[in-house]
Every structure is written in structure tokens, then in C-alpha cells.
From TrEMBL:
Native organism: Plasmodiophora brassicae (Clubroot disease agent)
Protein's UniProt name: Uncharacterized protein
CDD domains: WD40
Keyword Mitochondrion: yes
Family annotation (PANTHER family): WD REPEAT DOMAIN 44, WD REPEAT-CONTAINING PROTEIN 44
Acidic residues bias spans: 27-37, 74-88
Length: 563
């Protein structure tokens, strides 16, 4: 195995201590009664309430850099959270939520903070060995020469972010060959899956980088957000969403190829209220949306409403958020204050929390909701039982040798549909797949560049592909079932003896950093095909966002081609 192969480390008794059926079950439908309670509470919103929409005030993204290093250097900084009554009135759900107890009083002594005890064996297991130096949250490596910049466009967009502005430039239609055909390249592949990829749309509403995009489970909506602190909801053409109460923006600075569209050219909703960059988004099955922000808050929204339904305050930047897959009234949040929190939306309070030794940069539930994962700044992923957020085990995503052997920031976590595997993205330009039965690494995906930003890889809905943006302006797509793997029943990804996959397709998507890349779910493909049936069924839809603020939409109707 090469020197940079990843190493997985876990408690010796972790597998034996594994709770029954933690790995997966089918998601239950959201509770309609809870949905109605969310809306009933939101009806009490008044114009001057915290949850009402207000103009956003974007911040310099360099503050994200500076604050990350400040938090890392100051382990003893106080939360600043205060007590609140346990009997929170749901009718006042719009007010800021705080932790129900003085958290600082409950934290164990410093020498015990970074230890966890196996629930069944009593073994003490440290989770902070070989901590990295907190020397980077830079977005671009200093060795990279700055590209040419269109200063006039930057002035028009009013983006003034120091070093970041120098690296910012606009993507144009010239990124694609001819009118809209995209040149897809391959590396160590005998077959090209994206054989007829075309760029269909460029949407230019965001002012500054887009940090996060998420498809709704119903396939009707795409949510996007980033530096400008505005959440934009896009409707899928041909979808079955009701749009009677639409607030579509009248003017649309977007381009479409030959009139073909996947998304309506104007946002269906524009949610304002956050005061700083939005880092993460999460949908529920009934189209509620959570947003996590650098303004130290999580906000709750619904596509049928124009105002924020609730705001949940934190002590520091909120880096990740996730709805509980089976209990719609609960959600998970992760923060730079090193705490993983479980919230009750209706009670407007924290019901459980766990302390970690380092800043949390990613978090996720497994499909059953019985297990949570928290990704840390040094490449560790710590697993907790959701009930009480009790420590369960951990793995280390780091190389054995080389410049990244001390571990790099975890940028993304995603479980497979059956919960048997987890995909982990890190800032060492690697995407790793781990088996949840024995916590061993089964595959490492290589090719893209991800050195410092919060770029994360995503599965396609059928788990046949993994897609990721990159620092080098390209989008990368790996196949999980061809060339390197053999079929297994169900949605689990396949295994092979050689644990490295550097066989991929890639194409130039933006003229700068590609911050997010997603493959559309099956329902979105059906809707888009219904809206534009000429040319046959759409096999793939890719949406990407860039550091330039633009969102691009690509489609592929071609069959795989031997190369």
C-alpha cells in the first residue's frame, strides 16, 4: 500500500460493544401533527420579531478563517450561554433558543475532557491524540498563482474581501465547448458515463461564494446559500410543487441553452434573516428547511412561508445541521464551540449535548436516527448514540505518511441508505468510504483538490456515483459499481481488495473554485424529462456552485460509451 494510504483507528472493543440495529432502517414519514404545530407557532410572528425577514449583512469570509484559529487556540473560552425555563411556550417559538442549563458547569475537568469511556467495557479512550496545529483555514494555497481578474465585475458585485477578492473571477459560457456541449475527460476508465453532457443554465443571483446546496427529498426544490446570507429556493421545471403563493423574483440574470431549463430561472423564495455566511442546509421530508450560519444561529423555514419560523442561538459559528430522520421535531447541530447538540423544535430547547475536544466541522445522523457522527478539525470522526449523545466509538481519517499524517479537517459526512457505510470528505483531497460493521476503510477516492474549503463529496441517490467540487475549477465523478467493484444486493457500496479508486470522470465547470457539486435525485430527473421530453429521458443532472457566486446546471441524456 502506498505511503499516503489512510489509516483507520478505533477502540478495540468498539465492534463488540455495538448496539443492536444501529446501522439502519427505513425512514418514517414526518409527523403531520408536529408540522401543524410548527406552523401554529409561526403564526405568532410579528413584524419586529427576531424571526421576521430582514436584509442580510454579509461578512468578510476571512473572519471564518480568523475565528477558527482563535477558537482552536482558546480551549477555555466560556460559552456565554444562559439558563432558560424548561417549560418553553411553543407559541413563542420565534424567540432565540438557548441551552437549558449552564453548560460550562456540566463540563468535566480539563484533564478528563478529551477522554471517553466505552459504555460496556469501561475502557477509557482518548480522542485527541496527535492534534494538528491550527495553521490554516485558508481558501487557496499560497503556492497557487492568482488568476486574471475582471475588476469591473468585482466592483459591480461589490465584493470586497481582501485576498479572496483577488482570487475571484467570473465564470462565463466560454467554459463549455461550442454552444453548450461540455468536454468530459476520464482518468483510468474504459467507459464514459457522462457521454453527452450539456450545460443548460447559469443562474447568477448570489452575491459572493455559494457554500451549500441541497435537493429537497420530494425532488421539487433546490436550496442554495452562502456568503450573502440569503437562502434561495429554486423550483424544478415539470415538478408537482404548488406555486400559488410564489414570490418569484421578476428579473433573472440567468442564461439557458436553447430555451431548455431544469430550474425556473428566478428563485421561488428568498429567505433573509441570517446576518452572516450560511454554511449548511438540511431538508425534512415535509419541506421544512434548517440553515446553519456563522451568525451563531440555526433558523427554521418552510417553502410555503416567507418568514423564519424559529431561531436557535449558539455560542459560536454553526457548521452543520441535520434533521432527525424519524423524529421530525428534533435536529442535530454542530458548532465551533466543540459541542454537538440535539434540539427539540417545539420545546425550543437543547435536550442532549456532547463535548468534543476540537471544533466540529461536519455532522450527520445514520438513516435509523440511532447513531450520530461528528467530524472534527483534525480528521477524527466520533460516533455517538443519539439517545443521550453517549460516546460510542471513533475513526481517524488521516494518511500514515506525508504532510497530512496529522489529520486534516473533516468537511462532509454522508451515510448510505442502509446505514452500513459512511462517506467522509477531508481537507487532504481524499474521500474515504468506511464500513460501519467493523469501521474499516473499504475505499479511498482520489483525484480532486480539496485543501482548505468546506468542499464535500456527495452520493447520487442510487449510490452508484460520488461527485465533488474541487479547488481547481473541475467537477469529479467516481463510479462506485464499475471497474473497481462487484455488485452487492441493496444500496451498500461494493468492496474490493485494493482500497484505492483513482478512476474518475471530470470536466471544467467554473473558472474558479467549485464549492459544491450535486447529482439530482430520481424524481427531479423525471420532472425535468417531463418538462423537456425531446431527446429522450435525462440520465443525469448535475448542479454546481462556484466561488464566483454562479450556479450552473448540466444534463446528460447519453448512454455510457466505451473509450
Amino acid at each position: 500500500m502506498a505511503d499516503d494510504d489512510g489509516a483507520a483507528r478505533l477502540s478495540s472493543s468498539a465492534v463488540a460493544a455495538r448496539p443492536d440495529d444501529l446501522s439502519g432502517s427505513n425512514w418514517d414519514d414526518d409527523n403531520d401533527d408536529d408540522d401543524e404545530k410548527f406552523f401554529d407557532a409561526a403564526d405568532n410572528i410579528v413584524d419586529d420579531a427576531e424571526g421576521a425577514t430582514h436584509p442580510a449583512s454579509p461578512t468578510n469570509p476571512t473572519s471564518f478563517v480568523n475565528r477558527s484559529m482563535q477558537v482552536a487556540a482558546d480551549d477555555s473560552e466560556s460559552d456565554g450561554l444562559s439558563d432558560t425555563d424548561d417549560d418553553v411556550n411553543p407559541a413563542n417559538v420565534v424567540r432565540d433558543a438557548v441551552d437549558p442549563v449552564a453548560e460550562s458547569a456540566a463540563i468535566v475537568a480539563d484533564e478528563q475532557r478529551n477522554q471517553r469511556v466505552n459504555l460496556e467495557t469501561g475502557e477509557v479512550f482518548p480522542i485527541d491524540d496527535d492534534l494538528p496545529e491550527f495553521d490554516t483555514f485558508d481558501t487557496i494555497r499560497s503556492a497557487d498563482p492568482p488568476p486574471d481578474v475582471d475588476e469591473q465585475e468585482i466592483r459591480e458585485k461589490k465584493i470586497r474581501t481582501g485576498f479572496f477578492a483577488k482570487m475571484l473571477h467570473r465564470a462565463t459560457v466560454s467554459d463549455v465547448q461550442g454552444s453548450n456541449q461540455v468536454k468530459v475527460k476520464s482518468h483510468k476508465k474504459s467507459e464514459l458515463d457522462m457521454s453527452a453532457l450539456k450545460q443548460l443554465q447559469v443562474l447568477n443571483f448570489h452575491n459572493g461564494p455559494v457554500w451549500t446546496m441541497k435537493w429537497s427529498p420530494c425532488g421539487n426544490y433546490l436550496a442554495t446559500a452562502g456568503q450573502d446570507a440569503i437562502i434561495r429556493i429554486w423550483l424544478v421545471c415539470g415538478g408537482d410543487a404548488k406555486i400559488e403563493d410564489s414570490t418569484l423574483v421578476p428579473s433573472a440574470p440567468s442564461m439557458s441553452a436553447f430555451g431548455q431549463r431544469v430550474l425556473h430561472p428566478s428563485p421561488y423564495r428568498e429567505f433573509a434573516g441570517h446576518k452572516s455566511d450560511i454554511i449548511d442546509l438540511a431538508w425534512s421530508r415535509s419541506s421544512f428547511l434548517l440553515s446553519a450560519s456563522m451568525d451563531k444561529s440555526v433558523r427554521l423555514w418552510h417553502v410555503s412561508r416567507t418568514q423564519c419560523l424559529s431561531s436557535f442561538q449558539h455560542a459560536d459559528f454553526v457548521t452543520a445541521v441535520a434533521f432527525h430522520p424519524t423524529e421530525s421535531r428534533r435536529f442535530l447541530s454542530a458548532s465551533f464551540d466543540k459541542k454537538l447538540r440535539m434540539w427539540d423544535i417545539l420545546d425550543h430547547r437543547v435536550v442532549d449535548w456532547a463535548q468534543t475536544p476540537l471544533m466540529i466541522t461536519a455532522a450527520a445522523f445514520n438513516p435509523s436516527g440511532r447513531l450520530t457522527a461528528a467530524g472534527l478539525y483534525n480528521g477524527q470522526v466520533v460516533f455517538y448514540q443519539s439517545d443521550g449523545l453517549k460516546y460510542f466509538t471513533q475513526i481517524d481519517c488521516r494518511n500514515r505518511h506525508g504532510k497530512h499524517k496529522r489529520g486534516r479537517k473533516v468537511t462532509g459526512l454522508q451515510f448510505t441508505g442502509d446505514g452500513k457505510q459512511i462517506l467522509i470528505s477531508t481537507n487532504d483531497s481524499r474521500v474515504r468510504l468506511y464500513d460501519m460493521d467493523d469501521y474499516s476503510m473499504t475505499m479511498k477516492f482520489k483525484g480532486h483538490e480539496n485543501e482548505s474549503l468546506q468542499i464535500r463529496a456527495h452520493f447520487s441517490e442510487d449510490y452508484q456515483y460520488i461527485i465533488s467540487g474541487s479547488d481547481n475549477s473541475d467537477i469529479y465523478v467516481w463510479s462506485t459499481s464499475k471497474d473497481y467493484t462487484s455488485a452487492i444486493k441493496g444500496p451498500s457500496i461494493m468492496r474490493k481488495s485494493n482500497d484505492r479508486n483513482d478512476s474518475y470522470e471530470y470536466f471544467k465547470a467554473h473558472s474558479g473554485i467549485v464549492t459544491v457539486a450535486l447529482l439530482a435525485p430520481e424524481r427531479t430527473l423525471l420532472f425535468a424529462t417531463r418538462a423537456a421530453p425531446a431527446g429522450g429521458p435525462i440520465r443525469h443532472i448535475i448542479v454546481s456552485s462556484g466561488y464566483d457566486g454562479r450556479i450552473k446546471v448540466f444534463e446528460n441524456r447519453g448512454d455510457p460509451v466505451k473509450i
